[in-house]
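Give me the fold.
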Amino acid sequence: MVQVNDINIKMGGEAGQGVESSGAGFVRALAKGGLYIYGLQDYQSRIRGGHNFYQIRASEHPISSFSSNLQMLMAFDNETVTEHAHELVEGGAIIFDEGLKFNRADVDAGKVKLIAAPLKKIAKEVAGDDIMANTAALGVLAGITGYEISFMEDVIRRNFKRKGQAVVDANLAVVQRGYAFGADNHAADYQWKLQPMPNPKQRMVLTAHQAFCMGAVAAGCRFNAAYPMTPGTTIIEWMTAHAGKYDILTKQTEDELSAILMAIGAAHAGVRSLTNTSGGGFDLMTEALGLAGMTETPVVIVEAQRGGPSTGLPTKTEQPDLEPVIHAGHGEFPRLVMAPGNVLEAFHAGYRSFNLAEKYQMPCIVLTDMMLSTTQETIEPEDMDFSQVKVERGEYISKEQLDAMTEEWTYLRHAVTPSGVSPRAVPGHPKAVYITTGDEHDERGYITEDPPTRVAQMDKRMRKLEGARQEIAKPTLHGPEDADLTLIGWGSTYGAMKMATDILNAEGIKTNFFHYIDLWPFPAKETEALFAKAKHTITIEQNFTGQLARLMRVETGCVPNGKILRYDGHPFSQEDVVAAVKKEVNING
């Protein structure tokens, strides 16, 4: 039976074989046809060699996760077949070059179709070089699935325009020959088809990091300093690529400590400033994080998590840094911690992080990971509503107010206030001169060890958390309120857990999903309210110790009935969550 516009495709090969460019190109072609897509990238931390793959899910309906069940595998090397052939459903197919030799024992011949295509031969005959074999492969894929070739042609024209018309024409000829081979020889007996939607709506295709940057720039971020560290580097890559258009200054520093210190310096001068890193780099930043806390400087830090300790898993997905960022730095000082779970939440975090950091004069840490750094999703343009982005700077003393001050007036940068927030003036005005120091200080900023002053300043700084608690994004509940099962998660597990919740409900297992967006100050009241009504709770996290579960217990005393944990570097698929939940429920009766 033919199935239209519901397919999962995986392309695999070694680094340098064009896996990412092929996957990203096909994603754009599908999006041009009005389809919803989810593009998952997985690569190893080496320039050449190592197994990489790009997985694409396409549908007529909104999707927020990838699937473990493949209908098509495109193999650029033997390892792709060995690693992924078992993921193919019955009737699925493998496209590979006719010259590729692999162990046929890795493939269930009765279940999977083998499509040996003359990819290199087509490229050499048409373009004189087999370097365009990947373009031929995409043509074969489009031909087998019946997807209109014009969308692939549009992508080729865009991607190769800068290389000249001869290169564009050669790629067009190769994709057309590949398309004809697939359509003429294998389309008839392959049941999964792709069709553009009528009058296809053009949607944006973004990663969460790109969306975060867009929100940040809309909110006035104009400085980004960073030392490159996967998977956080895509932040400064985007900022640098758009620096000229949006008047952004970016700086690649010699190390992570320099990066955060530059960001703190710029923020002190009144510029909305950002730094980005991963777990190991954030460790190096913690001394300076305390400086931002003591001087009450609003700075935003994107901490893109990866497996540790030490170098760990540089290019894989994990959630090991929730507790570390909440408690980072010696001593006690307030900070905000956000953990967006998808493209839209990352967009909102982009402007909210700056507004809250500046309003409450404290550092804000935004937790992401490899999934959010590189995974592409379609998003409705109207959902990213830039009109709702407001620049909220909190209590500032304007130049006009300072001009009107009498000579006897003394500016107290760290004035003790009921809210803990002291009115702030940007340095430079002669009536707002003050000292900035990492030592404990009095209201004017002068160093002191006086016990009452220390207590007053400490209480003042920590009071800011109570105001911030009222403005953090509250957890969201997806699914029926009277569910028998409640799944609880944070960050990038959002998509798999949301779709798993839908699957479980469709199977008659009444389930809902509680998703945290902001995690510090911790939303204790909402958590307690959930546990008061929930029947059976299960936290799902990508770390070894169940850090969210521990945080909930510490802050509220609430203990989930079960935990599902993963820390092998691979993200949860919707099927992974469904299977793990069913196993957990059976174990616990």
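The chain has four domains: 3-202, 206-388, 399-469, 476-587.
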